[in-house]
Amino acid sequence: MVPVHIQTLIVSVSPTPSIIVLQPVEDVVQAGKYRIVPIWVGTNEATQMGIALENARFSRPMTHDLFLDALTNLDACVDHVVISDVKGSTFFARLTLRQHGRLIELDARPSDALALAVRQKAPIYIEEHVLEKASYPYVIKASHPNLNDERELADFRRFLEKLAPDDFEG
């Protein structure tokens, strides 16, 4: 398993899918390039991820908050998440809970598992075979050493916008 973090979230308007972009933790800009794994999700799922990433709180509990509150009351917590498989453009995840030293593994949509992991600051992993199959190299332009973060981010977003779920077929 390879540790990853959420590199960015691109929220779009329906019917265009939103994208959660994962990046291996240890891949951080080696030789001017790194790998990314884009996971297409619906607008609602992206909104929930954005809420988790921004640590936003509302007057009433959201579904993920309710789930975590139930876990807490059962003396359990999110131990970690694994992006375990990919078939075409569909990703699969395992959500692992810890309760009194016991690990409980659940099948989950990646968007839900990631939103819960972010809320509990739990580690996120991807299976090596999934990383190899679903990752794209992203090259940082070394010819522009003074390229600022905003421009890099804009270039990166343009790159992601050109990708389509069909790019994963095969």
UniProtKB/TrEMBL annotation:
Signal peptide: none
TM regions (residue ranges): none
Location of the BFN domain: 1-138
Pfam families cross-referenced by the UniProt entry: BFN_dom
InterPro entries documented for this protein: BFN_sf (IPR036104), Bi_nuclease_dom (IPR003729)
Molecular-function GO term, any one: nuclease activity
UniProt cross-references to Gene3D superfamilies, sorted A to Z: Bifunctional nuclease domain (3.10.690.10)
Official protein name in the record: BFN domain-containing protein
